[in-house]
Amino acid sequence: MYIENINSPLDLKKLKKEELPLLAAEIRDFIIKTVSNTGGHLGSNLGVVDLTIVLHYLFDSPKDAFIFDVGHQTYTHKILTGRKDKFHTLRAYGGISGFPKKCESEHDIEETGHASTSLSFAYGVAQAKNILLDSGEVIAIIGDGAMTGGMALEAINNIAHTNTNMIIILNNNEMSIGKNIGAISKFLNATLNDDLIQEASYKIKDLVSTLPFGDIANEIIDRGKGAIRSFVAPGIAFRELGFKYFGPVDGHNYEELISAFEKIKQIKGARLIQVNTIKGKGYEIAEKNPAKFHGIAPFDIETGELKSKSSLKTFSKLAGECIIEEAKENKNIVAITAAMESGTGLTEYAKIFKDRFFDVGIAEQHSITFAVGLAESGLIPFVCLYSTFLQRGYDQIIHDVCIMNANVKFMIDRAGLVPEDGDTHQGVFDISFLRIIPNIVIMSPVFEEDFKEMVKKSIEYKGPTVIRYNKSAIRDSEKNKENIISDNFEIGKAHIVRESHNKENNKKNCIISYGQTLIDIVEAINEINFDASILNLSTLKPLDEKTIIDFINKSDKILIIEESLKNGGIGSAILELMADNQIFKPVKIHALPNKFFEVATRGKLLELYKLDKNGLKEVISGYFN
User: Fold this and answer.
1) C-alpha atoms less than 13 angstroms from C-alpha of 559 in its C-beta half-sphere
2) pLDDT by residue (tens digit) across 526-560?
3) What is d(CA 35, CA 93) in angstroms, rounded to the nearest whole number?
């Protein structure tokens, strides 16, 4: 067992070159076994095992800075840099992150979980080394999927212009989460027609046969298909930009990898090497279904099937179903996502309405302004993104959508606390940054029934709307006897769930909330036999000011509960409303603190921040009693 003796990159360097593939096989087996228990990003990590081993074998981290784009392909990097014995805690509370974390190791240079950032960061590190006269290479590892992001293209333009001393590794596996989209992907994978290459090879061979040393030259030409492809596409374009281009190199061939990087080490300036890899390499089931195994829950290694399958419908699936139903009736409805077709529930929609579905690649900014163009031309675009990625299009929401009051419909998945992926993927900021923008409507469903009504009302409404929902199963409204949602949802109207009947000292307690949190609030007060009025806001912007003010005026103490940041959240909005109306009563906001959140399951996170049923019992009893 080679892996047992690898506790740092120095241990790796003790191996002979021919032993590296044996170590790679062990690492792949180790990753597969671990992720089958913990869940995680499997395909992307299996694809870069060989590349990562060679980089640590030939370079000296952290003196040579390794910067991984997205960061979801760093499992081998973590194993080689002293975290092998903690690897079983991957993505668990108190364990190691599935992404680079500076607090874990000096070998993690950047903390990241979003795509297309590596080149800009690496350029900064490289320029700093130049100014500070620090030695060491700067190596950015970016996938072809991340190259669709505008930030990466901006960095490429800047780096090539300055010929900065750094290495860019373009890891080309033709995938991001799903199959890559667009011209850049086609460009990076372009090859000449085999017949054309063959014909050119024959003509060149005939010509050089008449020259001295013709036999040697023809031996080289016999290997010429790859060389011709390399010269024509995409190598020549990168050279024209100013890069010293190498490749494409087989990312699973150690002889090719080591030879290429040994050459690159001898050269200075902006160097770009294209390494072709196979997502899921070494695990046949993942190779055949790379999208499924991009991010996977615990699974059975033999079959690839999930160990625990839930029969419960998620909000993501419901979102896709609702858009399909509405699109059948309304030919103007289109759907847009940014490399999140499966995650946002649009897989079936994409099959049914091929001409009305757009996956723009990892390009959230573009997706939003593209939607504005569609909307201003008379269509009704649904933009389906995760909350954490919506952040990347903030200027477009303000400048392009809301100033024009464009008829764009946002479906915001993974809002609130998000499991396992940690601080980079939490959806806790969207309410705070969206509610301050004029002309936008924000809605938050509890059950399937009100979700469907919100989709319908969103289509009827002329202007930008947002429906935000958790990464969780939809809870059955039949099991919740309380009248939590209205039978007739209206934008801008709150719903009174129950009125307090407490006659003791005429004290009335008031709880205001929204979304699935309301289910746990109702169950909590029922179990502790507590009397309180409850208001379901339903629409977070515009707030139903009249109902809220009347509700508060009837109450002695107010408790606002929300699964979002306290800073700038709906609690803050209600305090602003009270101040404007000179209402002075005791108010407590129970929400998430202003921090970045640790890795844990969604249930554990709700427990930690007292937003589960038991935690809410404690909060409610403690405040009102």
Assistant:
1) 22
2) 999 999 999 999 999 999 999 999 999 999 999 99
3) 15
Q: Are 149 and 182 contacting, i.e. CB atoms less than 8 angstroms apart?
A: no
pLDDT at 4: 93
Q: What is the pLDDT of residues 255-277, one digit of tens each?
A: 999 999 999 999 999 999 999 99
Residue 236 has pLDDT above 90, yes or no: no
Tell me the C-alpha distance between 558 and 537, whole Å. 14
Active site residue 490: no
Catalytic residue (one of 326, 364, 420, 562): 364
User: How crowded is residue 328: how many other Cβ atoms within 10 Å of its Cβ?
Assistant: 11
Q: 392 an active-site residue?
A: yes
Peptide linkage before 234 cis (omega within 30 of 0): yes
Which residues have a Cβ under 8 Å from the Cβ of 131 and sit 6 or more positions away?
A: none
Main-chain phi, psi angles of 509, to 5 degrees: -105, 140
Q: In the annotation, is 16 catalytic?
A: no
Within 9-91, where are the H helices? 9-12, 20-38, 43-47, 49-58, 75-78
User: Do residues 468 and 387 lie in contact, with contact meaning Cβ atoms separated by under 8 Å?
Assistant: yes
| pTM as predicted | 0.87
User: How wide is the angle at C-alpha 564 spanned by C-alphas 558 and 566, nearest 5°?
Assistant: 55
